[in-house]
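for the writeup, i need someone to sanity check this before i put it in the appendix. the sequnce is what the collaborator sent (i think, or maybe the updated version? ugh). structure was predicted straight from it, no edits. if anything looks off just tell me and ill rerun, i have time this weekend
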Amino acid sequence: MNKILFIIMACLCASCASKYQYAPAVSCKYPQYRSENYIPYVLLTKDDTLPKVASDIEYRDGKEWFISIKDKYIVEANLEITYNYGKVYQLNLLIKNCNNKSILFEPCGNIDAVLIDRKGELEKLCIYSSDDFLKKIKKQQTLALVLQGISSGVNSFSAGYQSNYTTSRVDGYTYTHNVVSYNPAVANMANTLSRIELRQMGKDMEEDRRVIECGYLKKNTIHSNFGIAGFVNMKRKSRGTVLYISVSVDSTIHYFKFNVKPL
C-alpha cells in the first residue's frame, strides 16, 4: 500500500513540475502566494530563495511607483491597464545604473511576467517586443483603413444620386412622383473629401506608431551613472487578479507585484 501511495504522489509531483520548471511539486495553484508578498517559483532561477517584492512606494502625478534598489541598480516600476490598439498591461520602467560599469538591458530577455487568476492558477505572459507590437498595431490599422475606404467609397457613390419629388394632376387627382437624378459634380466632391479623410487618418495612425516606438523599451546599453526609461506591453487577461514581474539587471533580479483585479 505504501508503495502504491508513493507512486501516485510521484506522478502528481512530476505532472505539476512539468508545467513550470521550478514549480513546487505539491500544487500548481500556489495558494501560499495569494496573500503574501512573495513571488511565484516560476520567476525564480535555480539558486534563488524566496525574495520579497519591492515595497517602497512613491506617488507621481497620482500614480503608484514601486522602487527596488539592489547591488547599485535602481529599478522603478509602474503598471497601467490601458487601451493601446487592444487592452494591455503597460509596464512603465525607469532603470538607473549606479555601478562603475556599463551593462546591457534587453526587455524581452530581462523581463518576465506571471499572472495569477481568480482560481489561483498561473499563466506566464508574453512581453511584446517593440517590433512585434508595432507589427500588431500596423495590422489593425491596415484593416481599419480598408474598412473605412470601402465605407467612404460607397458613401461617395451614393452622394451623386439626388431625389426630387414632382406632382402632377390627372383627371382631378394629384400624383406625387419620385425622380432620381445623378449629379457627377456632387459625387466627385464627396470622393475628394473621402480621399482627404483617408489620407489624414493614415497620417494620424503613422503618428501613433511613431509616438509608441519612441517610448517603447528596446535593447540598450546603460552606462555607469546613467539610466533608461520606457514601457513594454503585455496582453491583458480579464480573469487576472495579481501580476508578478521580475526585472533582471546585470543578473540582479528585482521583483514587483501589482494588483490587476477588475474593479
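Residues 1-36 have pLDDT under 50 and may be disordered. The first helix runs from residue 2 to 19.
thx in advance!!
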